[in-house]
């Protein structure tokens, strides 16, 4: 097995003390640390997140009141990474963070992996021990280049001060170009303290890195002909279309062809929900209309999507009658999970702009396919199977109802952020999205604790690029929130008036749902607090916790209290606000497809499987059965799949 770059570096003799000396003398003389700060300024970076430490102190020493970017001190390195992610998604800019070596760098690996899965442009600068100490197990030494190689788009080890501007220019370009992603720059103290001669712009050295943006060959003509021959087309839109800022093009393609739009979780809002072509999210917790449309389609157009298992369910049973057009800027995604009949490598926005005229020409020559029958079926699903939920039996609030009220009372320009869990699914199902870049959530990695720091980053971005006119609401669960709740200090100290809706059910909700359905209601390690045993309102009491951090805090147990709290929160714009909503711990996310099962077996509500009986007209009340009934049904489906 080949060594990582840092392992290989350890084998290099360090006896030649002057081996890194350069003769370059054109430019302003400064240290590598100063060059890093200057490089970020010249790259147009306006905000940087991070936590200082010994191995990165020269860089922090170079940051002062005259520095051209704002530095935001988070309370944990992972939070710095998530804040940079939220900032990047909200603004379309590259998120930047600076942390120290060893545990500081290892703490941020989760955020790097999260950004990599969701194609978020980010530059992560980590401190590293001096060159002479590499390989000696020095204090807070860790092979960060090696550790991040599998979960980053690219990683650099910088040992020479003169390389700092070039590496920063390359890292920033790599992060934002092609398929966006996180780039790590591991900066030794030798490079930080060394002297160099600064000049800008830098000549980048990137042999072999040439992302394809325009479609080649006859693939566009082939794709246009497939649209012309389709009577059940579906546009399956993923996060890549959001990164490409292709919302207008997706809508134009849908308007032209009459194809419905279904989205993955990160693509929610790419076309407004008010558009009748938008059927919502598909897959494990998607709408019946979206999931059904894909299952019955004859042409599936994957646009910046990667056929994730949460979308496809049992892969062999996914869209079984559909031919596939797959558009993606990353050639590695084409054919990875589903063979494409027409593979198109290129930037989504660029490809769609070139494809639409070809479809228009075929429509002029041969007429437009009649999709009346197709839309009759789709509209039937939309009408009969909206997102529904059961009312609580214990007098608490229905979390789905809370999300609906948050959406109804919010500014249409609100940026919505979520943690990970049931609340994340309810948010994506029930919020009405009006604009692209309005939804920020951890998709591929599913990182609990993502929400609060990402919301802070989104608010910093809103202040910087939108004059704060895009308010930020975080919808989080008590389990996810507690993983990074220390960032309330960051939110308060940095003047970010984020609004936090905490759906507090005192359990790990999504895990509990699976335990209910598949593990005989054995709630092992998922109960966070039992009020009847402690006699306390919560452990922690989130109202007291938020107030201790300088935030405004409220608690809602009734619908009247909930509405009042939401309206008060929307009027507060000088500090963070947290609302502790006490919600039903046995609430379920419906619809649901059991992991690994066919999407045809999607359960709308207990006892109702619309795609197995597409002609049936089962009413919600008549078709509803007990939670145990649906648990047995889903468990049986899983057992059958495992036996096969």
From TrEMBL:
It catalyses: 2 pyruvate + H(+) = (2S)-2-acetolactate + CO2. Coiled coil: none annotated. Residues 419-581 form the Thiamine pyrophosphate enzyme TPP-binding domain. Binds 1 thiamine pyrophosphate per subunit. Binds 1 Mg(2+) ion per subunit. Pathway: Amino-acid biosynthesis; L-isoleucine biosynthesis; L-isoleucine from 2-oxobutanoate: step 1/4; Amino-acid biosynthesis; L-valine biosynthesis; L-valine from pyruvate: step 1/4. Keywords: Amino-acid biosynthesis, Branched-chain amino acid biosynthesis, Magnesium, Metal-binding, Thiamine pyrophosphate, Transferase. GO terms for biological process: isoleucine biosynthetic process; L-valine biosynthetic process. Its EC number is 2.2.1.6. Residues 221-355 form the Thiamine pyrophosphate enzyme central domain. Residues 1-21 are annotated as: Disordered. InterPro entries: Acetolactate_synth_lsu, AHAS_TPP, DHS-like_NAD/FAD-binding_dom, THDP-binding, Thiamin_PyroP_enz_cen_dom, Thiamin_PyroP_enz_TPP-bd_dom, TPP_enz, TPP_enzyme_TPP-bd. GO terms for molecular function: acetolactate synthase activity; flavin adenine dinucleotide binding; magnesium ion binding; thiamine pyrophosphate binding. Residues 30-145 form the Thiamine pyrophosphate enzyme N-terminal TPP-binding domain. Its cofactor is thiamine diphosphate; Mg(2+). It holds the Pfam family TPP_enzyme_C. Belongs to the TPP enzyme family. This is Acetolactate synthase.
């Amino acid at each position: 097995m080949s060594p990582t770059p840092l392992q290989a570096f350890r084998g290099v003799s360090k006896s030649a003390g002057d081996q890194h000396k350069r003769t370059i003398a054109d430019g302003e003389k400064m240290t590598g640390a100063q060059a890093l700060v200057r490089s970020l300024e010249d790259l147009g970076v306006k905000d940087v997140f991070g936590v200082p430490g010994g191995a990165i102190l020269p860089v922090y020493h170079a940051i002062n009141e005259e520095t051209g970017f704002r530095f935001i001190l988070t309370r944990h390195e992972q939070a710095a990474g998530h804040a940079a992610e939220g900032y990047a998604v909200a603004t379309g800019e590259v998120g930047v963070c600076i942390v120290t070596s060893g545990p500081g760098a290892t703490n941020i690996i989760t955020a790097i992996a999260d950004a990599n899965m969701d194609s978020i442009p980010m530059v992560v600068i980590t401190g590293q021990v001096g060159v002479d100490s590499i390989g000696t197990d020095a204090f807070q030494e860790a092979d960060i280049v090696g550790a991040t190689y599998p979960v980053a788009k690219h990683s650099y080890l910088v040992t020479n001060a003169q390389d700092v501007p070039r590496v920063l220019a390359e890292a920033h370009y790599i992060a934002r170009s092609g398929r966006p992603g996180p780039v790590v720059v591991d900066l030794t103290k030798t490079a930080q303290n060394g002297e160099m001669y600064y000049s800008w712009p830098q000549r980048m050295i990137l042999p072999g890195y040439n992302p394809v943006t325009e479609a080649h060959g006859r693939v566009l003509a082939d794709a246009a002909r497939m649209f012309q021959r389709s009577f059940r087309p579906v546009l399956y839109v993923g996060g890549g279309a959001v990164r490409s800022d292709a919302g207008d093009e997706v809508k134009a393609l849908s308007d032209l062809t009459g194809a419905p739009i279904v989205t993955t979780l990160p693509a929610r809002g790419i076309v407004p929900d008010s558009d009748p072509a938008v059927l919502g999210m598909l897959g494990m917790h998607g709408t019946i209309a979206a999931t059904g449309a894909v299952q019955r389609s004859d042409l599936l157009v994957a646009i910046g999507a990667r056929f994730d298992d949460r979308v496809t369910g049992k892969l062999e049973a996914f869209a079984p009658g559909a031919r596939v057009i797959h558009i993606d800027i990353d050639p590695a995604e084409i054919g990875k999970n589903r063979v494409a009949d027409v593979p198109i490598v290129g930037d989504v926005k660029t490809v769609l702009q070139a494809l639409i005229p070809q479809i228009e020409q075929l429509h002029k020559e041969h007429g437009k396919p009649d999709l009346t029958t197709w839309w009759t079926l789709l509209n039937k699903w939309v009408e009969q199977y909206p997102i529904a939920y059961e009312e609580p039996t214990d007098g608490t609030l229905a979390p789905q109802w809370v999300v609906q009220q948050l959406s109804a009372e919010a500014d249409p320009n609100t940026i919505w952020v979520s943690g990970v869990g049931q609340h994340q699914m309810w948010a994506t199902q029930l919020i009405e999205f009006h604009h692209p870049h309005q939804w920020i959530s951890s998709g591929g990695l599913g990182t609990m604790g993502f929400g609060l720091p990402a919301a802070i980053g989104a608010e910093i971005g809103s202040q910087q690029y939108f004059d704060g006119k895009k308010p930020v609401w975080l919808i989080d669960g008590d389990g996810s929130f507690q993983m990074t709740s220390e960032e309330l200090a960051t939110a308060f100290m940095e003047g970010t008036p984020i609004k936090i809706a905490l759906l507090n059910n005192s359990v790990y909700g999504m895990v509990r749902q699976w335990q209910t359905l598949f593990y005989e209601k054995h709630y092992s390690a998922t109960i966070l607090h039992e009020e009847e045993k402690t006699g306390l309102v919560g452990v922690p009491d989130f109202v007291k916790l938020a107030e201790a951090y300088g935030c405004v805090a409220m608690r809602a147990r009734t619908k009247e209290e909930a509405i009042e709290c939401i309206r008060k929160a929307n009027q507060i714009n000088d500090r963070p606000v947290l609302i502790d909503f006490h919600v039903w711990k046995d609430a379920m996310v419906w619809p649901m497809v059991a992991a690994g099962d066919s999407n045809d077996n999607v359960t709308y509500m207990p006892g109702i499987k619309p795609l197995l009986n597409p002609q049936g007209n089962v009413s919600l009340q008549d078709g509803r059965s007990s939670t145990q009934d649906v648990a047995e049904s889903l468990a049986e489906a899983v057992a059958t799949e495992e036996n096969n």
